[in-house]
Design brief:
heterodimer, A: alpha/beta, 4-stranded antiparallel sheet, about 30% helix, globular, B: alpha+beta, elongated
């Protein structure tokens, strides 16, 4: 995954254009955990949205598997999101009307990688692996914050994506659960996936292989923990 | 699909929607029935001979008065020995058209003409207004409800978008489901209508008018609100919901 001179300007043609990102060049590799850090309003989430194909850059090139994503239409981008990218959010984004298991199976309905039964077995195995077997038929409202986030991580993993994107995944959690989630994400990166975490929590640094700092939409510092 | 529907359907909101649609359709149905009831009564009354008869003073030059209306007259009796004569028109409309045309000449010679259907006429007018107002209400309120429903589930729509679903398809699923529920409401009401017709001996053809009006309202409502929702959801950056 390679982003070259990426810029994002909101209200570009209006009277007050806002530059959210300016000339960002960055690349991501598999089996690596990245952190994107910075103050509120530094452009972290905008960058994450562009990486996660939820938004398009105003300028610049974004290559995914050596193909420019500007060549894809919305339908193709939706398919890539479903196949290649898993999302984890601060507020979990679980549907309260569904059980934990149904939430996990949600991305599989429009994915044909595996059969229905295989997906169900996979979801049950992941729930077991993450210590949530007993919670499979509970609604998110009946789960703790840490459990909800683990369900969200399983949902992000269910389609076997190459990239996991986490936006402030520990923002709503206490320090005990925070360490647990960071460790889980680290373990996931060791299975060959590229994990990108946006956070302003400095505790994440010890779990990440590479750290980028953003300031007012510009990439300022880079740390390598290898 | 079961999971998608379960995830996108907000049961309390839907209950309100169904109650709203059901009660409006019920009002519409009731108005239609009453309207047709009065319409039938009016036709029935107009067919009665006394309501098609015009009594007038015999000394008038009745022959010249009736000129041009021969084909509209069913029978007439001109009686010089009596105080008055009478003409029976084929229909009540013919009598009214005659009275209107010869208003000035008839002013002094008319002895009696039965005024009919005043109540029925007024009721017909009121009911027509009720039907139109209910139709407008049904369409407007349903559109408002459907849009409000979409705004309430926009977080779910964003979630589905993130997971790789296409936004128009997700909204489409909601509307197909709402349409499906509306169809169930219509089918139930059709059955009720059929029973009403059987019990009250009202003509069965009335059902088709009621159903036609209901189906048109619901289809218009769903198509309009679907289009408005797509435009609204597409023009808003749902990332802010995170």
């Amino acid at each position: 995954m390679y982003l070259e001179n990426i810029s994002k300007i909101y209200d570009e043609k209006g009277s007050n254009p806002v530059i959210a990102l300016k000339d960002i060049t960055i690349s991501f590799k598999p089996s690596t955990m990245y952190a994107i850090m910075g103050e509120s309003g530094s452009g972290k989430t905008t960058l994450l949205n562009i990486i996660g194909l939820l938004d398009r850059a105003t300028q610049g090139k974004y290559l995914l598997d050596n193909k420019d994503i500007n060549d894809y239409n919305e339908t193709e981008l939706a398919k890539i999101r479903n196949n290649k990218i898993g999302f984890v959010f601060q507020n979990y984004f679980l549907d309260n009307k569904l059980t934990a298991l149904e939430n996990i199976l949600l991305p599989t309905i429009i994915n044909n990688k595996y059969s229905k039964d295989e997906y169900l077995k996979k979801a049950q195995n992941l729930l077991k692996e993450f210590g949530l077997s007993e919670r499979a038929n509970h609604n998110p409202k009946q789960l703790s914050g840490g459990e909800c986030q683990r369900v969200a991580i399983i949902r992000a993993l269910i389609n076997d994506p190459e990239i996991i994107i986490a936006d402030e995944p520990t923002g709503n959690l206490d320090s005990k659960h925070e360490q647990e989630i960071f460790k889980l994400l680290k373990d996931i990166s060791r299975t060959g996936k590229c994990v990108i975490v946006v956070s302003h929590n400095s505790n994440i640094k010890k779990y990440c292989d590479e750290i980028f700092y953003l300031e007012e939409g510009t990439l300022t510092t880079y740390e390598n923990n290898h | 699909m079961r999971i998608i529907i379960k995830g996108l359907i907000d049961k309390p909101k839907l209950k309100k929607n169904i109650t709203l649609i059901f009660s409006l359709i019920l009002t519409l149905t009731f108005s239609f029935y009453t309207f047709y009831y009065f319409d039938l009564k009016k036709t029935e009354n107009n067919e009665k001979i006394e309501n098609r008869t015009l009594y007038f003073k015999t000394n008038a030059s009745e022959k010249s008065l009736l000129k041009g209306f021969d084909d509209k007259i069913e029978s007439q009796e001109i009686n010089d020995s009596e105080d008055y004569s009478f003409v029976v028109f084929k229909t009540r409309d013919d009598l009214e058209s005659f009275s209107l045309t010869k208003k000035d000449s008839l002013k002094d010679i008319v002895v009696n003409v039965t005024t009919t259907g005043q109540l029925e006429n007024n009721m017909s007018l009121i009911l027509q207004i009720v039907i139109i107002v209910t139709e407008i209400l049904l369409v407007t309120l349903s559109i408002i409800f459907n849009l409000n429903y979409i705004l309430n589930v926009k977080e779910e729509i964003f979630l589905y978008h993130v997971l790789g679903y296409k936004r128009p398809n997700t909204i489409g699923i909601i509307y197909i489901f709402l349409l499906f529920l509306s169809c169930i409401a219509i089918c139930t009401l059709t059955f009720i209508n059929y029973l009403i017709c059987l019990i009250t001996n009202l003509p069965i053809f009335i059902i088709t008018s009621v159903i036609k009006a209901n189906i048109i309202s619901i289809i218009i409502t769903n198509i309009l609100s679907y289009i408005i929702s797509i435009i609204y959801i597409s023009s808003h950056n749902l990332n802010s919901l995170k």
